[in-house]
Amino acid sequence: MKKFTLLALTAFSFVFGAEAQLKMNLTGNVVIGSLSADPACNLEVMGDSYFSCHPASGGFYFTNASATGVLRPQWNNSACLGLPDAKLWRAYTFSLHSDRLFQSGDSTVTEHIRPIEDPVGKISGIRGVVYDLKRDYFQNSPADKIETLVREGSNQTGFIAQELMTVLPDLVKFNEDSDLYEVDYTGLIPIMIEAIKVQQAEIVRLNEKIVALAGQL
Fold it and tell me: Is residue 163 domain-resident?
């Protein structure tokens, strides 16, 4: 079987031409892009790689039953996922850990800039709650991770999307992939800042009025 595999790989390399570089060592590990490297993993690719999924609904799948990462750079802080002109369409994850998080806001890509109307009224009209994610939400997860996911999904602080939608519809989106409503939490920050500014101006006005009344006594 090993001999047949080596013959098949040799033929595969030949099809790609004289510059093709594909090597399998005695342990069955394969390296593409170098005939001198000795692959330490099942598959190593030296140089750029391009993956095309057809049809459009296809994907690139990773399977791993353990809790360790399956997609990672070789060194810490050494790789990018996407580029400014080649962004990923969507990214789904249960827990996101990041040292810094940035969102587009450059003046050169924004237009129709206008003030937020009635920020205090908007904030007053929404309800913050504490909730637990249902166990069914974690279906299709590895069995040994279910209890951890349920525990980490409890005592969440946030908003109910359907409630928030009645006050701030632009911050709620229906995801057709998951058939669920989602909340843009970062979009609440500017509204809260403007509400604080309005309330602070009111506090200053009332303090000035108190000082004026005190001076008349």
Answer: yes
